[in-house]
Design a protein that fits this description.
Elements (H helix, E strand, L loop, with lengths): L2 H12 L11 H10 L5 H14 L3 H5 L3 H8 L6 H16 L8 H4 L7 H12 L8 H10 L9 H14 L5 H15 L17 H4 L16 E12 L3 E2 L2 E2 L10 E2 L2 E4 L10 H8 L6 E3 L5 E4 L3 E12 L7 E2 L10 H10 L2
Parallel strand pairs: 1-8
Antiparallel strand pairs: 1-5, 2-9, 3-4, 6-8, 7-8
Helix pairs in contact: 1-11, 2-3, 2-8, 8-11, 9-11
Amino acid sequence: MNFSKEIIQWYFQNKRDLPWRKTKDPYRIWLSEIMLQQTRVAQGLPYYEKFTEVFPTVYDLAKAEESQVLKLWQGLGYYSRARNLHYTAKDIVNNYNGEFPSSYSALLKLKGVGDYTASAIASICFDEIAPVVDGNVYRVLARYFDVDLPINSTEGIKMFKKLAFEVIDHDDPANFNQAIMEFGAVQCKPQSPYCIICPLASSCLGLKNQHVTTLPVKLKKTKVKNRWFNYIVIVSNQEETLLEERKGKGIWQGLYQFPLVETDKAVDDIEQHQLEIEEMIALKDVSITQFNQKPIIHKLSHQHLHTTFWVVETTNSLKNGIPLQEIRKYPVPILIGNFIEAFDF
């Protein structure tokens, strides 16, 4: 059996109708690949359509304000992707005359572009023999060849890249790469793969050896860190509130949030932190009401945020206050965005 030809044939018969499959424009391929990192297609598709509507070319993205990019990205998570996207758009316009590099090695020099994204752009847009290896590809290769090396180990990453080079179709690398990714997403799914009707079933070693459900192998994740966030939500009689921009290199850099008090455990009575809060928001003798009785647990890849919102109503005017009707213009983490909708300012 010719593995690559079977995969491509399956792809032509079963591929989903997605907008980035109808173009070889490097800008749009790059945009889709960055968006779909750690994001399901169903979730990423509306964002892709909105981005290409607002920023139809790399020039449009490059001249945008970062806050506008982050606002459109709101809800996709992993916000460093959006910041890198914006930085790279400006880099391409300023240093590459608006043209994407046309080779895998040159694409790797762009910020936020790693092996996978460089391989996808080089193969799909420029027909370079550059195999992609993402989660779907790892799964297909691990099962088909019955490989139990951890896919997130140094040895495993090297071995699967080598294996991908061996099976890629040299005559049609663009369709092969899209085919094997689609095959992993639709046919050789993580749970309940369609082995009975799989065109590769007769030669799949994982199926033959009854290892499909245990492959691919992955090393255990980093231990999850628990953090306790207490957001102070100011509502003044002048219908204003306070937001602050998150600085530094931690989570949500460049996004906005309500003033934050982080504690080392859950807080039942925020008044024990009242002096700290009054200094933070420059208001005295405030009364604070707890909005959610149970902490909202917001799960990130390596962190669980146990979050409580505390509402402060005041008759005082706010220094640097933001009109409540403008609060939705600011890019915020989805955790804050959900609260804004629930509170209904």
